[in-house]
Amino acid sequence: MSRCCYSSTSLLPPHHRLRLSPPLYSCSLPRKPLKALSVSASLSAPPSDKQLFVLELAEKLEDSLSLPLPPIQPLRDTSSQSLVSTPWPTRQSEPFRFTDISYLTKYPVVPAQIQTIPSSFPLNSSLPIQITLINGLLNPSLSRIPSLPAGVFVGSIKDVPQGPISEKISSAIASCSEFKEKDVFWDFNNVGAADVAVIFVPAGVKVLDPVHLMFCYSGSGKEEEMSMCNPRVLVVVEEDAEVSVVEEHFGFDGAGRYWANPVMEIFIGERGKVSHSYVQRQPLNAAHIKWTVARQEASSTYEHVEVSIGGLLSRHNLHIQQLGPETVTELSTFDLVSQSNQIQDLHSRLVLDYPKGYSRQLHKCIVCNSAGRAVFDGNIRVNRFAQNTDAGQQTRSLLLAPKALVTVKPNLQIIADDVKCAHGAAISDLDQNELFYFQARGLDLKTARNALVYYFGADVIRRIPFKPIRETAASEVKKLLSF
């Protein structure tokens, strides 16, 4: 059983907790501090150790915000109240039944601070538009925003010009509070986000150059604690508009122990298109819990390519909702578990509510360590009015070590009666016939095995449409596979 670093004896007595300190930021919106909410909750029923952990961490995140961020203040308020009653996930709850998240409570958690930028930091992205976030804060000196098409905005939410753009951004943020699938990690991000990186593309505009989001993290420098940061990104693409977004998550050299808890929300208008590439290559002592939520209007297209190879604990909650007919969604993901006790977890959910929707999902996974674990829980729901839907889902896993473990739950729920849907799952070691084929053509067994293992994952990696990012991901995979 995992131990929680907070216990009832480590907190101040209730009569001390009633002496509340004021929040460190001010806002015109009325707000009840989380500390007051937690006190009232504790009077009705004694909280468990894990609930105390949630409340204590939420209070720390609130107190670490020294500047107001009015556009997302309603989200902060809503999540502050939600965290009082939102339980910490356990193995008894279905979404986390196969995912051990005890690493998150193994050490005291503190809000991340801005660290000195090391000389090894990759200042120059290979892509023209670069947004750099250091521990969740957008760093202008390490970002590069060239001249953009008229009406396009890329930058911090603090710099969004007043007028129609700011109104549309505020409207998008307001709709985020209605998200019903959220969990405690979503609420942590709402409470602790110190900045929001915004990508706004107005109607009819196509941004030709991809926007490269570089998320860099570091620990507190203390071995006995874990730092936490909550980066947030908002992408709004209006009707007939188009943009490509590339996000990379990595740590400073010798970054120490940290917990990255990012959220990305994507709104795609009618006939809009978003190409989204995501590479997670955190160090082994990091935890990475991510939410990606995409909402697609009629005839829009969302393409997602993911390579997740780092972190001791990595979980991606990917939620897509089709909000109109003739909508296209394509998901390609690759997870690699190469280290002892490493966990890679993908939970995806695609909801189709309108006719003539199209979706394809390919998930691939390699587990090459006996103490490693991978989880795939993919849910595609075709609701009653989503007639003439064409949906396909495939998951393939490769187990390369004794006792290596993968749990797959492909799930295709069909309520409509006029659809074309299929899904499949396969788990195996390398095909001996394929190995024999290579050997028969003069390759030794090791070379043949390495080639088959690498190209199993390369099937997804090659779908990243940008060569520099694709080559970086391929190089990291080869390194972890010891090729």
Automatic annotation (TrEMBL):
Domain SUF system FeS cluster assembly SufBD core: start-end pairs: 225-454
Residue ranges of the TM segments: none
GO biological process: iron-sulfur cluster assembly
A Pfam family it matches: SUFBD_core
Domain SUF system FeS cluster assembly SufBD N-terminal: 72-212
Cited InterPro entries: Fe-S_cluster_assembly_SufBD (IPR055346), SUF_FeS_clus_asmbl_SufBD_core (IPR000825), SUF_FeS_clus_asmbl_SufBD_sf (IPR037284), SufBD_N (IPR045595)
Protein name: NON-INTRINSIC ABC protein 6
